[in-house]
């Protein structure tokens, strides 16, 4: 038996005669199995580089819209998706929200910002990680109520505390207040886990995981994609095939591609 579910507009939900979901139907409201959670996280990662386009965003006549129309040939997307329930299992990808509160405190966030910028400082090609919101992404990520993120939260919080203890012991100041050279002096022994001293292996594991989260946050922003030279994420109204010079360089002909 199939019926349209008001909790999941636009989607079918298989139910028994008493209205409860069958094993093949969607999870009950509020439940979230591991597979579904991973799908939600994948969607969240994809959203990290998506410009804000929710209600109240100024999209009419903006340069972003003009570029979108020029590059894709399509009109900008509507400000929200009326068919999405806005839940973790059916998110509104056009007007995303974070359904959990950030857990890292102000002091921890000062250390997060300093470490993010130590890992990805600004240069002539791209801004520093903190300039594009990566510290907030780190906080959002480790605050998520899923098993993997909760494990990372323990590791990250312990690592941040260790950085400040080490900073105070060696330089009588918190990590965020140190010069870049002193921050590097603390982090150099833990920057590569296989080479870290045995007594610093846990700290090195923290640094490795924090670097991964920071990199994900940065290179999924518009600035990060520009830094990579990534030119995807733009819909094409048509595809005429690869440029002739590319086909020729591969030793092929147009007939080979037909």
What key attributes describe this structure?
258 residues; mainly alpha; two-stranded antiparallel ribbon; 2 strands; extended; disordered N terminus
Q: Short summary of the structure?
A:
With 258 residues, the protein is mostly helical. The chain has a domain at 106-228.
Please tell me about this protein's structure.
There is one protein chain. This protein has helices at 34-47, 63-72, 106-119, 134-143, 147-171, 180-187, 201-219, 222-228, 244-249, 254-257; strands at residues 2-4, 12-14. The protein is an all-alpha fold and 258 residues long. The chain has a domain at 106-228. Helix 4 (134-143) crosses helix 7 (201-219) and helix 5 packs across helix 6. The protein is extended, with a radius of gyration of 23 Å.
**Biggest beta sheet attributes:** 2 strands, antiparallel
Total strand count, please? 2
- Please indicate the percent range of residues in DSSP E strands (runs of 2 or more): under 5%
| Termini gap | 45 Å
Overall geometric form: extended
Helix content: 40-55%
Q: Give me the Rg, rounded.
A: 23 Å
| N-to-C order of helices and strands | EEHHHHHHHHHH
Total helical segments: 10
- Uncertain segments are 1-31, 46-61, 68-77
Helix/strand class? mainly alpha
Overall mean pLDDT stands at 78
> Biggest sheet, strands in spatial order?
1-2
Chain-wise SSE layout:
Elements: E1 2-4, E2 12-14, H1 34-47, H2 63-72, H3 106-119, H4 134-143, H5 147-171, H6 180-187, H7 201-219, H8 222-228, H9 244-249, H10 254-257
Antiparallel strand pairs: 1-2
Helix pairs in contact: 3-4, 4-7, 5-6, 5-7
């Amino acid at each position: 038996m199939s019926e349209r579910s008001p909790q999941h507009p636009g989607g079918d939900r298989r139910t028994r005669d008493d209205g409860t979901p069958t094993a093949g139907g969607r999870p009950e409201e509020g439940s979230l199995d591991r597979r579904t959670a991973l799908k939600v996280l994948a969607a969240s990662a994809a959203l990290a580089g998506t410009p804000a386009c929710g209600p109240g965003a100024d999209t009419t006549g903006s340069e972003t819209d003009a570029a979108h129309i020029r590059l894709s040939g399509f009109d900008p997307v509507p400000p929200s998706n009326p068919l999405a329930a806005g839940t973790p299992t059916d998110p509104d990808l056009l007007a995303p929200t974070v359904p959990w509160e950030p857990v890292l405190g102000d002091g921890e966030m000062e250390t997060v910002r300093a470490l993010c910028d130590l890992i990805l400082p600004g240069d002539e090609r791209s801004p520093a990680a903190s300039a594009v919101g990566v510290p907030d992404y780190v906080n959002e990520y480790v605050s998520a109520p899923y098993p993997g993120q909760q494990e990372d939260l323990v590791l990250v919080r312990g690592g941040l505390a260790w950085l400040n203890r080490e900073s105070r012991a060696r330089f009588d100041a918190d990590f965020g207040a140190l010069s870049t050279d002193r921050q590097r002096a603390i982090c150099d022994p833990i920057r590569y886990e296989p080479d870290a001293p045995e007594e610093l292996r846990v700290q090195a594991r923290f640094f490795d995981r924090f670097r991964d989260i920071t990199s994900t946050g940065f290179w999924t922003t518009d600035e990060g994609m520009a830094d990579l030279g990534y030119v995807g994420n733009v819909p094409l109204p048509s595809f005429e095939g690869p440029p002739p010079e590319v086909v020729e360089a591969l030793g092929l002909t147009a007939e080979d591609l037909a």
